[in-house]
Amino acid sequence: MSEQVKSALMWLTHILDSQQVRYQIVGELAAYIHGSLRDVADIDLYISKSDVEKILPLVDTFISKPLAHYIEGSWDLEYFQLIYQSQKIEIGLSPSTTIFDSNDGQWIELEINFKESLLGEYYGMAVPVMPVCDLLRYK
User: Fold this and answer.
1) Which of 21, 46, 68, 103 could form a disulfide with 112 if both were Cys (CB 3.0 to 4.6 A apart)?
2) DSSP H or E run through 95
3) Cα dihedral 1, 12, 93, 79 sign
4) Do residues 117 and 129 make contact, with C-beta atoms less than 8 angstroms apart?
5) What angle do the packed helices 3-18 and 52-59 form, to 10 degrees?
6) pLDDT (tens digit, 0 to 9) for every residue of the chain, 139 residues total?
7) Cα–Cα distance between 99 and 93 in angstroms, integer?
8) Full-model pTM
9) Phi, psi angle pair for 79, to nearest 5°
């Protein structure tokens, strides 16, 4: 277990929950919660685009990459990055993310269905996690 990841996740979920912001954990952390043995390097999650203004003032001093539209590699999305106690956290906005599918050479929309989140546990913390079938498509 990474104490750094745990501490950052506790801090972030407290903020999100206090502002009643729905979110979904994705990426390496979601895979770990579902049983993967890979180390978790960063925390990736999505929130609704309509909720971003609720939390930006509360995390302002931790922003390392400002909220903007980015096209990076096979990703086209709006997100911002935080660094909390040396832990990288990336928060994407939904809807609006597309991923380049190299198999058919097209951009496809990444649908984040917050209602379909599964409740997972990370060292005693219950968090909404992307379902495995969606995670496999996402990765």
Assistant:
1) 46
2) none
3) negative
4) yes
5) 130
6) 589 999 999 999 999 999 999 999 999 999 999 999 888 999 999 999 999 999 999 999 999 999 999 999 899 999 999 999 999 999 999 998 999 988 888 999 988 999 999 999 998 999 999 999 888 876 6
7) 14
8) 0.94
9) -160, 170
